[in-house]
Amino acid sequence: MAKGITPKEENYSQWYNDIVLKADLAENSAVRGSMVIKPYGYAIWEKMQSVLDGMFKETGHENAYFPLFIPKSFFSKEASHVEGFAKECAVVTHYRLKKDEKTGKIVVDEEAKLEEELIVRPTSETIIWDAYKNWIQSYRDLPLLINQWANVVRWEMRTRLFLRTAEFLWQEGHTAHETKAEAIKEAELILGVYADFAEKWMSMPVLQGVKSTNERFAGAIETYCIEALMQDGKALQAGTSHFLGQNFAKAFDVQFLSRENQLEYVWATSWGVSTRLIGALIMSHSDNNGLVLPPKLAPIQVVIVPIYRSEEQLAAISEKVEGIVKELKAKGVSVKFDNRDTRKPGFKFSEWELKGVPVRLAIGPRDLENGTVEVARRDTMEKENLQIADISEKIVHLLEKIQDNIYRKASTFRDDNTFYVDSWEVFKQKIKEGGFVYAHWDGTSETELKIKDETKATVRLIPIDGKKEEGKCIYSGNPSYRRVVFAKAY
RNA sequence: CGGGGUAUGGCCCAGUCCGGUCAAGGCGCCUGCUUUGGGAGCAGGAGAUCGUAAGUUCGAAUCUUACUACCCCGACCA
């Protein structure tokens, strides 16, 4: 057991916090609900960014940047949008400070009151659609496929590192299309990108579907989402993609001349994933020894720890290691030689395990003699001694195996905690225990809210490729023609 | 935002009820030596106006009030 990490069986929340802090991913800052993302945590985000950014560009999107501040009046143009976000907006009212004559303290200069208050963006639809109005005149300007990497602020009541903070980093795509069908296709395309990223890069299996009315994004016609199951049996929404219909086009008067020379409102989408993905990553794979990272997103994929007594031994080992490092780098593997003389090997082992480095090599005098190296994998904690000769090839292979194994492990966990339920009693029991519960639902908000009241579970999603199946709503007994996924959620 | 809890060197914390050599201990940090195949040992050393601000008092980590932050449980949410 790693020092300082609360076992997750004992207290899951504490376990999560311990990992974030001890693995040096992030810490709380002086500002309530806002976190400092530390270099190791930020390195993971950078990896995620770079992969996702590539995927967005691959699908025809371009990056741009829109302002942090949004005039309050913009915000109120789309009714359900304001309503959805009003309760969690930070508002800028003044633009100057001054020194108080009496106390000598810095105070807000009341004379520097803004004519129109500014909202710190909780999301950017409004400021972006205000700009799009001028960019779009003709069907020839469409589709408009733009993404931005940004920070947003949502004044949350209760925050948790990475999972929910007042300020967080994300990307938000905002697209405009000629037709409804095209916009829906875009929203679905991005959902596929997100699912692909979650599964192939994060090794995190996800369900894909659409949200119920209650869970839908404020201002959307349809919200698509990916949902993952965390190790405590709670669901985590990992990404969303919205079909916005013509809501924002109408609110901001974005019209274009169609091929038929008709003035029409454009069709919109928006979509985003955030630093919450790092929380999802932690909760998908990590164990009581600390973080477990999928090789494809690990800032350091291989760490090499030398074991030596004398300077001469270190020199000999270093020479050997240099060759391995070179080979690994040539194969695109990120590798760190931990030759700090200030730490003992045992300490380094624990530290890198805590930080989730997928593969550790240890080389000592015995290995030099035998031409071997000790290879330890983080996911299974297994160790074996391998010949040093073709080690880089074996490691590349091993990294793939680990990527695959943790996906399978997470998949098995999800399958073991997925239930098909037809009785209300069993439903309550399964929800209490945690997991995804497939059950019939009459499709009404009223029923969903009642179920939430009684069990804390919500409709996580309505499966996209859900089979039609006659049944009766688990709660109301009214007819239903498909199962939806219920779970308690983060 | 409601309920509960916490705040003392970088970290974990004793001391707070009952005000007066009380700022203790452990980890970490620095120096030296010995060590190095799973979180090393010994010796020496540095580091705290006790969350912030007022107040009570001859005297406050300790009592009072306000504020701030964090944690847990709810409601809300990516």
Structure characterization notes:
The chain has 14 helices and 27 strands. It is of the alpha+beta class. It has 3 domains: 12-67 and 130-285, Bira Bifunctional Protein, Domain 2 (BirA Bifunctional Protein, domain 2, 2-Layer Sandwich); 300-398, Anticodon-binding domain (Rossmann fold); 418-487, C-terminal domain of ProRS (Translation Initiation Factor IF3), CATH 3.30.110.30. The strands form 7 sheets. It has an 11-stranded mixed β-sheet with strand order 3-9-10-16-13-12-11-24-27-23-22, sandwiched between helices. β25 and β26 (479-480) form a beta hairpin. α2 (39-58) crosses α6. The longest helix has 26 residues, at 391-416. It is globular and about 80 Å long. 40% of the residues are buried. The structure holds one RNA strand of 78 nucleotides.
Number of β-strand runs = 27
The geometry reads as globular
Mean pLDDT: 93
Spatial gap, N to C terminus: 27 Å
Radius of gyration: 26 Å
Strand order of the largest sheet: 3-9-10-16-13-12-11-24-27-23-22
Broad structural category:
alpha+beta
Structural topology:
Blueprint: H1 12-22, E1 26-28, E2 35-37, H2 39-58, E3 62-63, E4 69-71, H3 72-75, H4 79-85, E5 91-94, E6 97-99, E7 106-108, E8 113-120, H5 125-135, E9 144-153, E10 167-177, H6 180-201, E11 207-210, E12 222-229, E13 235-245, H7 247-251, E14 255-257, E15 263-265, E16 267-274, H8 276-285, E17 302-306, H9 311-330, E18 335-337, H10 345-354, E19 359-363, H11 365-370, E20 372-377, E21 383-387, H12 391-416, E22 418-420, H13 424-433, E23 436-440, H14 445-455, E24 458-463, E25 471-472, E26 479-480, E27 483-487
Parallel strand pairs: 3-9, 17-18, 17-19, 22-23
Antiparallel strand pairs: 1-2, 4-8, 5-8, 6-7, 9-10, 10-16, 11-12, 11-24, 12-13, 13-16, 14-15, 19-20, 20-21, 23-27, 24-27, 25-26
Helix pairs in contact: 2-6
The structure holds one RNA strand of 78 nucleotides.
